[in-house]
Specification:
Chain lengths: ~260, ~325
């Protein structure tokens, strides 16, 4: 069985901006849950150790009650008072938000967490995981009921050419002819595309990276009329990007007022 | 638009917004102060306009993702509700004096429907056992049949008190109510997500209860049964019904929202769910403590009549509190 394709939820703000809520995947949520379960387990363990000093019965009763309260209130407290992030979710860069992109209320959080009893079945969130995979917004049953979404956060940083590092000293593309062609034939959109490609190349699988770089390289080889057979696709792309983000790369832009 | 230049020009403001939002996450609103809040709102609007601008100029996923996240964080702060905060004591008083009974009265139809499912189950189980006691074996879990009801009553009444200290009663009570609350939450969840599952769970529990009651009646020890189950059952069974009814309220909003959107119907049902679930949990705590102590007492300690009377009184008090007190909305 494959999971249903993921869908972003779009929220239109009063400023008429579309905000996108990007649902978090099953794996990160599961890891966050493991962390939270560990935290709760550690706290209840510590608690029963401390309460063991009390007379038998009273200590036991308190340990059971407080352990129970902690198991259920942990999620409520963090979801409402800590902006939707338990410790596990904070670690994994996740956040629970209302379906309208707003913070959760106590009532919503209670409804969401009451269904945990069902999500937890048959073993450690089996039902919740199944619901997650079938739902395009990756909601477990509790999320469906409370109209909440778990979103991923904190991954995106604006790309900047500064991250490219120092360019190679020798750049075979830096000839008068090629520079002129670059200025005339490569636009801003392409420049950004090339930057993104360079910055994300390290995350690609090796053969995929080679194929992609060769393909892009071939396109620019044709575009700029370069016929150097010893220049690999990746070198060409990187050299080209370095030039594009240096002073000589682009035709002068009209300044915005 | 040159995106590099755009990023360079706006980045300081984005970082300022990030820092303000991080502070706002940590400190309460009054400590943040009007000035910083105004600044935050201004920067949020700027980020919104930047996001729109960036969307029309580029498809750079990192930049758009970053701005989207920044604007979403700002949105969550600027448009969050709950500005009016009650002191905790006032909120608690209001909850018990008004919100809790009001929710039950508002949803009385579904509470009745849930109660009907349970009672129907009781009737079916009861009738099945009276018709043929052997039916009991199919309806009641096997561990019940290690001894006949009469033998069990004779054994319990001749032995020492099983729960003879406060400590034992507390321990037993705590295990009971934590378990019962979990069951109640499960009943709620099943009802909320499947509606029919909620009805079925109530009905099935009724069948088991009815069958056990029937077996005790056939053995002629029905008074023991009432005295043994009554005191806590008078609260526990309503609590399970209430949790099930809360599930039905949620299920109705989820599956039959009518003219409203599903999200709107769910949000409208939330105050009822909140009150009914908290109410059920609190009732179960009281019921569990009674079950762990008073319910277990033998006839030597407390006469049956007193226990049955207490059961009736508890049930009456609960019904009066939830459904019969008249209070206008404060």
């Amino acid at each position: 069985m494959t999971a249903a394709p993921r869908r972003e939820r779009v929220v239109l703000t009063p400023e008429h901006v579309e905000l996108r809520l990007v649902p978090a995947g099953l794996a990160s949520r599961f890891l966050a849950l493991l962390v939270d379960a560990g935290v709760i387990l550690a706290f209840t363990g510590l608690l029963s150790l401390l309460l063991a000093r009390l007379p038998w019965g009273i200590g036991q009763a308190l340990a059971i009650t407080l352990g129970f309260v902690m198991t259920w209130a942990y999620h409520l407290w963090f979801e409402v008072r800590r902006q939707g992030r338990t410790w596990g979710k904070r670690l994994l860069g996740l956040r629970v938000v209302d379906g309208h992109g707003l913070p959760l209320t106590w009532q919503q959080s209670l409804a969401r967490n009451a269904v945990r009893a069902l999500d937890f079945l048959p073993v450690f969130y089996g039902a919740g995981a199944a619901a997650c995979l079938l739902d395009r917004e990756r909601r477990r049953l509790g999320d469906l009921l409370a109209d909440t979404v778990v979103v991923q956060e904190g991954r995106a940083r604006p790309l900047s050419a500064a991250a490219l590092g120092r360019p190679r000293q020798f750049n075979s593309l830096r000839t008068r002819r090629v520079l002129r062609l670059i200025r005339h034939r490569i636009g801003l959109g392409e420049r950004e595309f090339l930057l993104a490609l360079c910055l994300r190349a390290d995350a690609l699988e090796e053969s995929a990276r080679y194929d992609l770089m060769e393909e892009v390289g071939a396109a620019y080889r044709a575009k700029l009329g370069i016929d150097d057979p010893h220049l690999s696709g990746e070198s060409l792309v990187r050299d080209l990007t370095a030039i594009l983000f240096s002073d000589e790369g682009l035709a002068p832009q009209p300044q915005r007022a | 638009m040159d995106v590099e230049r755009f990023i360079a020009a706006r980045r300081p403001q984005w970082q300022q917004l990030e820092e303000l939002l991080a502070t706002a996450d940590k400190v309460p609103e009054w400590e943040l102060g009007a000035e910083r809040i105004q600044e935050l709102v201004r920067l949020y609007r700027l980020a919104c306009s930047d996001l729109n601008q960036a969307r029309s100029a580029t498809a750079n996923p990192a930049l758009l993702g970053y701005l989207n996240e920044l604007a979403a964080r700002g949105y969550r702060f600027v448009y969050r509700g709950g500005g009016r905060r009650q002191p905790a004591r006032e909120a608690v008083r209001r909850f018990f004096a008004f919100e809790l009974p009001a929710a039950f009265r508002r949803e009385r139809r579904l509470v009745l429907a849930a109660a009907a499912a349970l009672l129907l189950g009781v009737a079916v189980g009861f009738a099945a056992v009276l018709e043929d006691p052997r039916n009991g074996r199919d309806l009641v879990p096997a561990q019940f049949f290690t001894e006949s009801p009469r033998e069990r009553v004779a054994r319990i009444e001749s032995e020492e008190e099983r729960i003879d200290t406060v400590e034992k009663a507390l321990y037993f009570g705590a295990s009971l109510y934590t378990h019962n609350i979990k069951v109640a939450l499960l009943a709620f969840s099943l009802g909320a997500l499947t509606i029919l599952g909620g009805y079925w769970l109530l009905f099935y529990n009724g069948v088991v209860l009815g069958a056990v009651a029937g077996l005790y009646l056939l053995d002629g020890v029905q008074l023991f049964f009432l005295a043994w189950v009554g005191p806590h059952g008078a609260l526990e069974l309503p609590a399970i019904v209430f949790a099930g009814a809360a599930g039905l309220v949620a299920g109705k909003a989820l599956w039959l929202p009518g003219r409203l959107s599903r999200g709107a119907a769910l949000r409208r049902a939330l105050p009822s769910l909140w009150a009914m679930l908290l109410g059920a949990a609190l009732i179960l705590v009281v019921a569990g403590l009674i079950e762990g102590s008073f319910s277990q007492m033998t006839a030597k300690a407390v006469p049956y009549a007193l226990k049955v009377g207490a059961a009736a009184a508890l049930f009456a008090a609960l019904v009066v509190y939830l459904f019969a007190t008249r209070r206008s909305e404060p």
